[in-house]
Amino acid sequence: MIPFKSLVIVGGGTAGWLAATYLQRALGANPAHPVSITLIESEDISSIGVGEATLPSLRQTLRTIGIPEADLFGRAEATLKNGIRFVGWREGGDEAAGDRYDHPFDTPIAAEGYSTMTHWLNLKQRGLMQQPFTEVGVVQPALMDAMRSPKLMASPAYDAPISYGYHLDAVLLAHLLRDAGIRNGVRHVVGTVEQVELNEAGIAAVRLKDGARHAADFFIDCSGFSSLLLGKALQVPFQSYGDTLLCDRAVACPVEHENPGGALRSYTVSTAQKSGWTWDIDLQSRKGTGYVYASRFCSDDEAAATLAACNAGRKAIGEPRVLRMRVGRHVRAWEKNCLALGLSSGFIEPLESTGIYLIEHALQLWLDYLPVRPGAQAARECYNGLMADLYDELHDFVLLHYVISQRRDTPFWRAYTEEVKLPDRLQALLALWREKLPSATDINRHLSTFGAHNWFYILSGMRHLPEHGSAQSPFIPPEHSRAALARIEKIRAAAVAQSPSMREYAQKMHAAAANAPRS
């Protein structure tokens, strides 16, 4: 027997509508045990609209919900993402000067008995390798350089020879999810929550400005940074990451393509700036751009001017919008009969595109820990521990990008490299990785979004490698390592030759969406 029959979601946007559609599919399939789902959103609160890049996990989530992949291209401006290109993070130089590295989605393979990471380091420490790892050890950076799609023209929906994420318009994605949710039975209420009624179970009901009262057995807080239910009504404490993740604001502005109809990049560009970093994402008809910065070192006007300079020659679509970010997490995401998702629960700056992923993961984990009776505590406590652990791990992963930089040219970068106190776990990992390459057993959390190879991409790109090389190297003949990387080079060349351009693939999928029958 399920522990509730009614569920109210407060807040729309990506978080609210992803929750509504996913839970409608998961909880509404059995007519013998119906669960009514109501989503309340206010016209007065606009969607944040910052998270326009995703991790590959969204593919399976949307497949589960039943959203045709073509609709992402036809209705949400989607392009595909092979990974992230970081520019200027190591020394403050530009891409032409070689100050760049890539974080792709593909995983290094084993060849000749060792990972390509080990083969690369074997050659490098012998003075036989000058190229960065991602230019010789994995496939997707070759697709990035050629602006190729990770999917083939004949690839099935949500599938491809290699992993991929999306670039998309988050507001349009929310609209797509909203339409699917309403079509599948989610009740949509437009109104602003004015009062939250509490009882022993937690939340009894919410009252809207128009006087309407909505009671439910369970509530999901998707109200954004305001955290109306979890933070304000239930007063769950907030743990700030502000002492270690210094960026607390963003200014965003979409711009036109320099060459409409030209090539589209299949990767996100993250360029380090004096007081933070800028993002640049190719959607089909425009670019999504923004500057994430620390207000301690940069005013809003300075940030807007920096973004405008980065976008010189591109026509702005609308006015720049400043977003204030509350970086950290509530100590418990599930309190009594209330679950917080997205910004209501916590926030890690969007450097590694984890915003939507955290919503997906929280939903899947909550269903796994959903108790069979109301008020059960063990499952709730375990869920909260796992989610807190996940946020802390992502905090450490994002922090890594900053603290191993060689930049000392501005107060922002000196604060990160000389003043920020590293968490004990990250400090221990960096000490370990000065002696060896990252491996799966080093990442011993219950849940790890990023594996050892992901950490290695950042470490190698920033030239933070084992001080004395790899202990395996004396036992690996260099010709074996050359043969292993030569095999990868053949795969890279084949992938580029077989893959369509990102523009070609997007046009095909956009046309497929336009011609698809509508229910």
Task: Note down, in words, how this protein is organized.
The protein has 519 residues and is α+β, with helices and mostly antiparallel strands. The protein has helices spanning 13-27, 57-65, 69-75, 116-125, 140-145, 170-183, 228-233, 300-310, 355-369, 378-403, 411-419, 424-433, 452-461, 478-498, 502-515, and strands at residues 6-10, 36-41, 79-81, 83-87, 100-104, 110-111, 114-115, 165-167, 187-190, 193-199, 202-208, 213-215, 218-221, 238-240, 249-252, 268-273, 276-282, 287-293, 321-324, 328-330, 334-335, 338-340, 346-347. The strands form 6 sheets. It has a 7-stranded mixed β-sheet. Strands 9-2-1-13-22-21 form a 6-stranded mixed β-sheet. β6 (110-111) and β7 form a beta hairpin. α1 packs parallel to α9 (355-369) and α9 runs antiparallel to α10. The protein is globular, with a radius of gyration of 23 Å. The two termini are 33 Å apart.
Helices and strands: which structural class?
A: alpha+beta
Helical fraction: 25-40%
* Radius of gyration, taken over Cα atoms and rounded to an integer in Å: 23 Å
The DSSP helix count reads: 15
- Which oligomeric state applies? single chain
Total strand count, please? Answer: 23
pLDDT averaged over residues? 94
